[in-house]
From TrEMBL:
Residues 6-33 form the KOW domain. It comes from the Bacteria. SUPFAM superfamilies: Translation proteins SH3-like domain. The lineage of its organism: Bacteria, Pseudomonadati, Bacteroidota, Bacteroidia, Bacteroidales. This is Large ribosomal subunit protein uL24. It comes from Alistipes ihumii AP11.
Length: 107
């Protein structure tokens, strides 16, 4: 069973809870089954890697870890603050997401 999520790849989001609270970034990937998202520059973890073709030296690599969707809120295009998301049918008859704060459409 798939659930409709309020966040999509490419959205700019703010983290509203957890260790990375207050940080802002772009969603790189959404893991729908796990209800998590990977956000650019947020929730960084150190990963120990063996030497391989991509990283011949090996060592410790910093990378983004998935963060739960409930801890993310999209950024309002007008004010730049966190907002809730609604869905409505636009003039073309297409279902679009919009910011509850300003009423503006989210891309």
């Amino acid at each position: 069973m798939s659930v409709k999520l309020h966040i999509k790849k490419g959205d700019t989001v703010i983290v509203n809870a957890g260790e990375s609270k207050g940080q802002q970034g772009k969603v790189l990937e959404v893991l729908v089954g796990k209800e998590r998202a990977i956000v650019e520059g947020v929730n960084m973890v150190s990963k120990h890697t063996k030497p391989n073709a991509k990283n011949p030296q090996g060592g410790i690599v910093k990378k983004e870890a998935p963060i739960h969707i409930s801890n993310l809120q999209p950024v309002d295009p007008k004010s730049g603050k966190a907002t809730r998301v609604g869905r409505r049918v636009n003039a073309d008859g297409k279902l679009v997401r919009y910011s509850k704060k300003s009423g503006e459409e989210l891309k």
